[in-house]
Amino acid sequence: MTDRVQKRKRKLSPDSSRKKAREGVDSPERNSSDDEGTTTALALRTRAELKSEVEPKSNLDVEFSLDDNSDIGAPRQVTTTTVPKPAVKAVTTKPANPFVGQVAALRGNFPSGYHDTAHFAPTTKKPKHGVWGKKGSKPLRKWVKLALDSINANDDFVVDSKRGEKGGWIYLVSMDGETVGYLSGSKAPPGNPPAKYIEIFLDAKKNTVSAFPSDPSMF
After folding, report:
1. Residues 6 or more apart in contact with residue 10 via CB below 8 angstroms
2. In whole angstroms, what is the distance from residue 94 CA to residue 7 CA?
3. CA–CA gap between residue 137 and residue 106 (Å, rounded)
4. For the whole model, what pTM was predicted?
5. What is the residue extent of each domain of the chain?
6. Rounded CA separation 138/142 (Å)
7. Which of 87, 90, 132, 203 counts the most CB atoms within 10 A of its CB?
């Protein structure tokens, strides 16, 4: 009975760890205590390997892995550029101008007429009042003729207009940035701000009744 027990062959264990233990042994002859020690060591190592696979890497390990493989599997930052929408240009309506091509020549007595001389000095009796910067007739006539030419041609220097009395029409003409006088009157801003526009009143016959320095804020 004893001989039969000793001669009985040991079956191979289906445990993969034990199979690895058998393949890793240098000597084919090992006792049961050696098998148990090897099996225990392999089992511990297997648990450690499984643990390393299951548990997430630490932040430090992730940083090193990203550094070593920055082009492989690393998250890419997508930069989006916001293109600003073009500004919507304001739609402007050209001022009404019923006197296009009909403006009469500047009267000969300008700027010595009654309505003209009042604009050589400031006043507070009127809420809005324009004062000429120069008193000679030559530069004043030149400025007013340029404004009348713009009204007659209906060009872009005519910036505003409105209906006047008795069929007349009032125009505001830009002098293209040139200062022709300054603003006065009880409602004018303090400090005599410069005037770079000319306001012209034409009667129903298209004659110049008055012309003086002005501004869009006073029109």
Report:
1. none
2. 119
3. 12
4. 0.59
5. 15-68, 114-214
6. 6
7. 132
Is-contact 110 211, C-beta < 8 A? Answer: yes
The tokens for 103 are 């403006």
pLDDT attached to residue 91: 55
**What single letter denotes the amino acid at residue 119?**
H
Q: What is the pLDDT of residue 68?
A: 45
| Radius of gyration (C-alpha) of the chain in whole angstroms | 51
Q: What is the pLDDT of residues 103-150, one digit of tens each?
A: 999 999 999 998 899 999 999 999 999 999 987 899 999 999 999 999
CA dist 215 → 90, 179, 195, 198, 203 (Å)? 21, 11, 6, 8, 21
Q: Cα dist. 204→82, 96, 148, 209 in Å?
A: 56, 15, 15, 10
Spatial separation of the C-alpha atoms in residues 202 and 148, rounded to whole Å: 10
Token code pair at residue 143: 């400025």
Q: What is the largest CA-CA distance in the chain?
A: 154
Check residue 181 and give its pLDDT: 97
